[in-house]
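Forwarding the complex inputs:
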Amino acid sequence: MTASIDRGIKALVEQIDAPVATFFTTCVHCGMCADACLFFTETRDPKYTPIYKLFPMRKVWRMEYTFWGKLLGKLGLLKGPTDEELAEWEPLVYDSCTLCGRCSMVCPVGNDITYMIRKMREGMVASGHAPRGLKDAMKRAIEIGSPMAVTPQTFQTVVRKAEEELGFALPMDVEGADYLMTLSSAEIAQFEEIIPAVARIFRETDLSWTLSSTGFESTNTGIQIGSSDLAKHLLERVVHTAERLKVKYVISPECGHAYTALRWEGPNLIGRPYPFKVIHIVELLDELRAQGRLKTEGFDEDRLTFHDPCQMVRRGGVVEQPRNLLNMFAKDFVEMEEHGINNWCCGGGGGVSANERADEVRIKVFSKKKSQLDGLGVSKIVTACSNCRNMLEDGLEHNNMDMEVVGLTELLAEHLVETKDKPAASGEQS
Amino acid sequence: MAKNETLGEVMRRQGISRRGFLKFCTATASMMAMPPGMVPAIAAALEKARRPSVIWLSFQECTGCTESLTRSHSPTVENLIFNAISLDYHHTLQAASGTAAEEAREHAMKENDGKYLLVVDGSIPTRDGGVYSTIAGMTNLQILEETAKGAAAIIAVGTCAAFGGIPKAKPNPTGAVAVSDIITDKPIINVSGCPPIPTVITGVLANFLTFGTIPDLDKYGRPLAFFGDTIHDRCYRRRFYDQGLFAETFDDEGARKGWCLYKLGCKGPTTYNACATTKWNQGTSFPIQSGHGCFGCSEPDFWDAGGFYKPLPAATIDVGGAAGVAIAAGAAAGAAFGLYERNRRKKAQSSHEPLTVDDLD
Amino acid sequence: MTAAELLNWARGPGLQISLVVFVLGMTYRVLQNYFIGRKASLAEARGSQWGPGIETVWRRSLFHPGMTGKGYFTLIAGYTFHIGFLVTLFFLAQHIELFKSLLGFGWPALAEGLIELLAVLSIAALVAVLVDRLVDPVRRKISDFQDYFTWVLTVAPLITGYMLVNGMAMRYTEMLALHILSFEALLVAAPFTKLSHMVTIFIARWYNGAIAGYKGVQS
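Prediction (whole assembly, three chains):
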């Protein structure tokens, strides 16, 4: 069965639940959501108003779920969205929305617009209207193993390189380990320093952990393109691995949408609760810190700030942990004025960075992040999402801003107090 | 009564002094909001006024309007004016009765064809052919239509004649209607009130006698001179209303202090009449001054305005029961429709064909 | 029909009909939305739903970080309108008589002068947001017929009320009938338009807070 407008509308009908119906009923067209969306604030184009992005879905709601809408629809006085309309809305729903969640925080009547955009994407992709870049990334993820064309072989190569650097073997497919460490393909392809970093931290804290040759990639293009079916396909690789290895925890890496996919959407995608828990790497590190198992030495003298990845913080609930960790070793940690759950999106999440058509607009709206950083005087931006890292680097370069972007775990590992420099692998059960 | 005496001759015969007569003209002028310069004109006109023929028809009425008009304890100038018209037919006041009375009416109509004043009090029943009020075998409807033909003008005295009054109150079993519902081709002055203030009617008559014309009327045919302001506009308790000082019950502190009676159902704001200025019993008092809210007796349908003690903003129908049914019905319908939608959604979900990577192209 | 008859109708059958439509319609809307259903999440909760949901109901009324000048304008104008409208509706002595007749009890009133001032400010705020809706690009993009229709329905009771107490334009009886009918029109239209937000705002805010609260975030 191929994508079609009918399939798209059917998907939308499936997606409309009580909250969506309530939100559409309650929207008073005040337009305050626009000022929370960096795609509007930095372009001043009213088509980027968050609630406007949902207009085709609203049509479906009216016609299918309201009394008068149904009546007028049957009389032919009301029409549903057309294929052309969905095509017109595609850039609005995908190129100019990162699912950052800020609009949901400011709507005065309480609409969770992000919740609805995620659902609208189900209809968009089912009707065939998703960006080429995302579709290609989706195919790569399913057929090759990751959206960035990182294959299981690539992964093994990178792991071996890390082992060489570390001087000890890394646990791979260890059944019965407590923690399964997953990664994002951006980390494997670009920021592979993360692997030695976590390896050293886990050795030092005597953590029982393992990597896996099958479930190594937990980013989820399916969530970004908005197809629960495709997202489920990708997620199951990790879930089946975790179940096969009988781990207690699956660690979500420094990646925004991986956390959303694994932690919050996952069980609903597969239709059952997990037999394991999901924990964000930053959450885990903070737990270890709180337990006194994680110790750092020395200080980072650089004036630095933390960029809160939207999916981890505002939409994920891991808010205080990165700060706790940074405060262990950062001497000059300054917060942006709007930080934590009030941070502004980097502009690259939600599938935007995988979509070449959106390159121009996402670079343009980086001016919002720039305005946050202007006057802060930092030379380093710490974050905990590799997509944010890439976007930040792109934006800083484009704006000739001289700042370093670094991952939190990596940075922390630089200050790790290591007492267990054991030559043997620490992957055995503790 | 001599028909061809002028009013001046009548007054001299009665021993009314010139001074007393001019006092009346001044009072009339000021009551009708005319400038003092009009007084000589009124005096001159009334002096020479021939007593016009007046036929007074009483239909479905309580005789309160006649009582109001003619009640007096001593000869008053109102009575004099009454004597200045030739009242050729009036059930309560005429000496004649039976066929003699009807003959007097017919005679007056013939003699003064086109010139006589027709005064009507009481509403006109129309249901079942109008049998609910008949005189000498003729229905009120028939009498009115017949008598109005030769009238110069009609004065509908009292709210019954002006608007239908108490007989028209729900369920209006007699099909009572106002004079203006029957006669549409003659000038009609509505002097409403239940009953009207005596000086209001004499003022209207004086105007007619003086100028031979109908005074300025509001959109309901009532003389603006008396019905141009609301009771609320002229009420001496108005400042209490403005300050939010209301009597809550009939004998509470507020009531005793003479505070506004709005909350006790006063319809002053929607009632047009002269009670607050002219008052009753030669300016003695009026309902509000006596501690009872105005109940709007000069307005159409005042009997059906939801109750004299229900304040203007109050609901006049009990909505509690209906609201209860509405909640239940809305809840049931909402639940039903919602569950139907949920079911449809679940069906759509169960017949969901999963998207595959091939569908992306 | 005379003005008096129209007024009597408005105070009687008109009120009954409009209240029934309002109550039935709003109940229907709320329950229909509810029964469409929401699937419980199978993910492990970090926080609770009820508490955060209720907290968002009131917390969402506050100014939020990073608000722009336009945001301040919209919220302040919005509050001026809403507060003026609601205070006028619930604390004018004459209106309290209406509620007394419906509910069986009343409450103390506020001075009419104060309420008149708030009503005027409310009308001014409504005019301000209407102009904004017509002029601002974002609002132009997302506004439809309903937005302008409900604006008229909302401003009409305020304007007719003001005209009533100040004896403007029409006779009291006509003005009062118009005033009551304008409010009844608002009641009838409420369940079928965005005006239903007067009830559903609490539900939408609750969902918002609950969804975030589940993840341990206070929205």
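The radius of gyration of chain C is 20 Å.
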